[in-house]
Write a structure and sequence with these properties.
The chain has about 230 residues and is an alpha/beta fold. It is about 30% helix and about 20% strand. The chain is built from eight helices and 13 strands. Helix 3 links the parallel strand 5 and strand 6. Helix 2 crosses helix 3 and helix 3 packs across helix 4. It is globular.
């Protein structure tokens, strides 16, 4: 039986959209991707009960009022319907102990849904010199390194202590929710990955492994393979 994976989508000008790289990453490892509709109040229990795993894709910024702040000047465009839908679905998926993989924005909304918070804009809020986290290079190119937390699920999955990732964000995780640990950081201290200590596979990564797969990146392959294997169980 192939695993059914819910894939989060964006809303723009009354259209749902999702990069095909996310869909291809699911099918490549034997999953069946289902693009999700961003229904704010309807169908959360039915959707969570139907899918075997949830892929939270990248996209725009997140409403800061969800973690107790008001918008700062550095905040970009938000989609409230998407935020509310994903928060409700994440909470239900974790209640059902089903696998979740969050990518970039998806990692951030995963943290927010479980009680964490984030920088609205690292360049105006985080102290000290920072790397270029919105790279000016093709999306298949790894632009900076991430150091793994020894013994974390991600560390065990990729099998190395340090590897290169791509980077397309100006928001970033700040304080972890209860029951989660940091599993990877950039050299400037920006949190690049985190995971649940209470669930078999609930993980967020700040980069885009679905784009790195196109160039045969072994670490990205390992992440998606582990996610799909968890979903099949």
């Amino acid at each position: 039986m192939r695993a059914i994976i819910g894939v989060s989508s964006n809303i723009k000008e009354d259209l749902l959209s999702v990069p095909l790289s996310n869909v291809r990453a699911i099918t490549q490892f034997g999953g069946v991707p289902i693009v999700l509709p961003n229904l704010v109040e309807e169908g959360i229990e039915e959707i969570a009960g139907t899918i075997d795993g949830l892929l939270l894709t990248g996209g725009g910024d997140i409403d800061p009022t969800l973690f107790g702040e008001e918008p700062l000047l550095g905040l970009g465009s938000i989609v409230p319907e998407r935020d509310l839908f994903e928060v409700a679905l994440i909470q239900k998926m974790l209640e059902l102990n089903k696998p979740v993989l969050g990518i970039c924005r998806g990692a951030q909304i995963l943290s927010i849904a479980m009680g964490g918070d984030m920088y609205q804009d690292i360049y105006s809020q985080k102290d000290g010199p920072l790397l270029q986290h919105d790279q000016q290079a093709p999306n298949w190119h790894g632009s900076h390194f991430v150091e793994m937390t020894e013994g974390s699920l991600l560390h065990k999955t990729v099998g190395v202590d340090r590897f290169k990732v791509n980077s397309y964000h100006h928001q970033a995780l700040r304080n972890m929710p209860v029951g989660f640990i940091v599993s990877g950081v950039a050299s400037d201290g920006v949190i690049e990955s985190f995971e649940s200590t209470k669930h078999p596979f609930v993980m967020g990564v700040q980069w885009h492994p679905e784009s790195l797969i196109s160039k045969g990146d072994a670490h990205s392959f390992a992440i998606f393979e582990a996610f799909l294997n968890a979903c099949k169980k």
